[in-house]
Amino acid sequence: MSAPPQDRTRPAATTRTGHSAPRRSRRPVDSVPVWLKAVGVVVAALFVLPTLVVVPMSFTAGGTFRFPPAELSTQWYESFFTDPRWTAAVGNTVQVALTVMVLATVLGTAAAVGLSRMRSRWAGLLRATLMLPLVSPGIVIAVAVYVSYLQWRLVGTFGGYVLVHTAMAIPFVLVSVGASLGGFDNRLLLAAQSLGATPWRAFRTVQLRLIAPGVVSGAVFAFVTSLDEVVVALFLRAPQFETLPVRMFNSVTVEIDPTVAAASSMLVVLVTALILFPQVFRLLRRRRSNGKAMS
Amino acid sequence: MSAMTTTTRTSPPGAAPRRPRGGRGRGAGALVVPALALMGAAVLLPLFLSFLRSVTEPSPGLSNYAALLTDGVTLTIFSRTVLVAAAVTLATLVIGYPYAYLMTRVGGTARLLMVAAVLVPFWTSMTARNFAWLILEQREGPIDRALQTIGIDGAVLLGSAWGVGLAMTQVMLPFMVLPLYSAMSGIDRKLLLAAQGLGSRPLTAFRRVFLPLSRGGMISGGILVFALSSGFYVTPAILGSPQQSMVAQLLAQRTNQLLDFAAAGALGTVVLVFTLLLVSLAGRFGGSATALGGAVQAKGGR
Amino acid sequence: MTSTTATRAEAGSRTPGIHISLAGATKDYGLARPAVADVDLEIASGEFVSLLGPSGSGKTTTLNLISGLETLTRGTVSFDGTDVSDVPAHRRNLGMLFQSYALFPHMTVAQNIAYPLRERKVGRAEIRRKVAEVLGLVQLEGRDDNLPKQLSGGQQQRVALARAIVFGPGALLLDEPLGALDKNLRGALQTELRRIHREVGSTFVFVTHDQEEAMTMSDRIVLFHEGGVEQVGSPRDLYEAPDTLFAARFLGEANTLEVEGDPASGTVTHRGVSWAVPAGVVSPEVARRPVSTLHVVVRPEAVQVGTGEVPAGRAGVELRVRDVEYVGHFVRVLGNGPGGEPLTAKLPAGASPVAAGDRVTFSWDGADQRLVPA
């Protein structure tokens, strides 16, 4: 190896003392450092693991939240499915949530479509108004709603729950339908009408088809919002009408009833399955299409 | 109501030969009215009445607001709340930043798993998650025992601001990670390579280029978590104590137990205005509402 | 390190440029074939070399191996005879230009350009002087305080160029830097890049998939195909004497006819028509690799269109004219050869008495053809 002709241009380098073309095993440039991956695993564990403590808890034989349980039993699952207070709460919750889902999806979708067609500068203000429950602290809504609903005799009623939960669910529908409307070209409606469709048919056969994914995810959001809402529900509860989150909250804070552990476990498993299912599905589909591309 | 006036404004009277309905403008306002009416009756009117009570009862004026400053309790609780919310914000940022960054760097399968890890708690019942923390933090619970084995006795987290902060950090983490991730995935990786090509060590390139470019996500995630934490009720109610209470508990107590609706209205108004200001600030740094509702989009992993 | 770069930066923007050599350079991601396999390449100091090829041919990977943004699986990269295979990107002292400009959006034009100087601990006054100087060089005086997003695409790429040369790098690596610009701007920037190459005098390695761009700009072209080097040479060499069918087709228009025969005999046959092949037009690759099929390559401008027999001493085929396209300064006569393969002749405008449907002969001088392996 001869001396480099231009010493100035010579980068700091270690001259390799020469075997020919050894297989190099250097770390690739711009790779993810190992410590960062470790941090990622720890944080992912922090996301997922703490909540899982409710699962062993739910199998306790004792009547307290003592952990780990000394003896095991399934009595709290029995309690969940047989105790009328729990079964009634589940029934109420599902009824309210389904009603809220339908109402919020219809009203929210209509509003989102309306807002997207509006050219006025008021559209922004209207949107912000409809988004208010999403960005307000639940407790502020809860106390205000509680006092008014007391006067309106809506506390502890199906209608009261539906009313306030629908209002709280509409922003989610607005966001998710709004996102899918973002890519919608309003000229398609004119095109459909020029081809002879009535405005309603044009909406139903063209626009609704295209924004359907946003409507569906908005409906899921609305359902879950009502299903999980606890703060306002706590204030609207009455002995004759309470929802599952309220029942759970009181079991934790007032009654020390381990049935809440059984309820929590089932919710955790349900949600995890619902989230993982589409992810796993997507993964499998990707694997399959990759396999096709390779062959 | 205002929606109707809006639409008539867009097509001035007398002008406009008939144009196809369902396109832009006409009839659009009518679609918004039902949602707006429900929203008004269900939430907006109660909020307004609550504010009205706060300035009219027991006598017209700002006495309820003055009382917030002078009752000796509210200010203490306010500052405690702000302190805990700030600590939670900082903690979620420190924990969430590397996680969100890693999400932008790993391959498809790992990213889907990481997204799922964020979404599972995001969708899991709030009550269940806080109940889990109660089990972990209680006396003789797993954390207490772990601390005992390393020689720290009697440091029970349940009922303390620390315990509330710890649980709230975990509960709020998704709200930090999602905006961070969305900001980071918009940063061109080539910029880091360019910086290295220009003579920066990889870490320097990260500090000088990536970090400043992710600032928008940090600010919007930070404000979001701060706003949510300072008005949060469930965690302090389950894990806190009356001695260490937060603003949300105070508000609930004034309404539920003291039945002092006017004072509660004043406190509620202050909290609401404070939160809305913060959130509109966050909106400036990239759609806080989208970040909140964005779990749907985040589901796609992109 | 710091001291050497500082002296380099102070030496002014005119630098001799480094000599780059790749020996057996291989990058294998573990896919069906390596991204780059056994590339041997010498790039002389101060040379303007284009790495040309279709996407996926390995040209960009090769550039990244030089820059250090990719690590070698095997082989070596040396600068001025010194092995730099293990030197990380940030210590190779090379300027880089990307198609996406890669300007830091949160920094002003001046801050972007000052970036490499600050990394090299250059003094403030010196930074200011150099930034002004290089902004003059790329004709963007007075834009110091603009943010990248306030500039047009062409201006942004000039800033990126200024940033890449301000610290006097040993070489400038350009990764399709003009790919995102529209046609007129491309032309202007091509000229400008040539001018700056002359003024700076550094080694330029230019990646492109645009053969015309490579032809007009480079001293030499390295043609990539499926992860390996297909042919290296001046633009004229590559155009007039392609070594392979791929090279012939990738650079410019080419008529290709599959032929049979032994090159040593001096005659080839295509569907019963035979003609002579002088030894000078036989690609060296014919002798070098086991050849399955041979092709005769003729550029359209070398083809003459006539009537009747193929003139004596010329090679050619008879065919029926399918179409005549008028392109302004020339016309293109299209037809199909005896085997159905499309053939084109490019004639000066006005010199075209033929029309679609005519029976004609396409003929060419034996020296204007090239015999290549597939």
Describe this entry's structure for a reader.
The complex is a heterotrimer of chains A (295), B (302) and C (374). Chain A is mainly α. Helix content of chain A is 71%, strand content 0%. Chain A is globular, with a radius of gyration of 28 Å. Chain C has two domains: 2-236, P-loop containing nucleotide triphosphate hydrolases (Rossmann fold, 3-Layer(aba) Sandwich), CATH 3.40.50.300; 242-373, Beta Barrel (OB fold (Dihydrolipoamide Acetyltransferase, E2P)), CATH 2.40.50. Chain C is 26% helix and 31% strand. Chain C has ten helices and 20 strands. Chain C has helices spanning 2-10, 59-67, 109-119, 124-137, 153-165, 183-200, 211-217, 235-240, 245-250, 284-288; strands at 20-27, 36-43, 48-52, 74-79, 82-83, 95-98, 171-175, 203-208, 220-225, 228-233, 255-259, 267-270, 273-276, 294-298, 304-306, 314-326, 330-336, 342-348, 359-365, 369-373. In chain C, a hairpin with a 5-residue loop joins strand 17 and strand 18. Classes of the chains: A mainly alpha (295), B mainly alpha (302), C alpha+beta (374). Chains in contact: A-B, A-C, B-C. At the B-C interface, helix 9 and helix 10 of B face strand 6 and helix 3 of C. Chain C: One of its GO terms (molecular function) is ATP binding.
Residues in β-strands, percent of chain A? under 5%
Q: Averaging pLDDT over every residue of chain A, what do you get?
A: 84
- C-alpha geometry of chain A: globular
The count of β-strands of chain C is: 20
**N-to-C series of helices and strands of chain A:** HHHHHHHHHHHH
Low-confidence stretches of chain C: 1-13
First and last CA, distance of chain C: 49 Å
In which order are the strands of the major sheet of chain C placed? 6-7-8-3-9-10
Q: What's the helix count of chain C?
A: 10
Rg of chain C (C-alpha, Å): 25 Å
Distance between the termini of chain A: 46 Å
Main pleated sheet of chain A: none
The general outline of chain C is elongated
- Give the quaternary arrangement of the chains: heterotrimer
What class, by secondary structure content of chain C?
alpha+beta
Number of H/I helices of chain A: 12
Helicity of chain A, as a percent range: over 70%
Radius of gyration of chain A: 28 Å
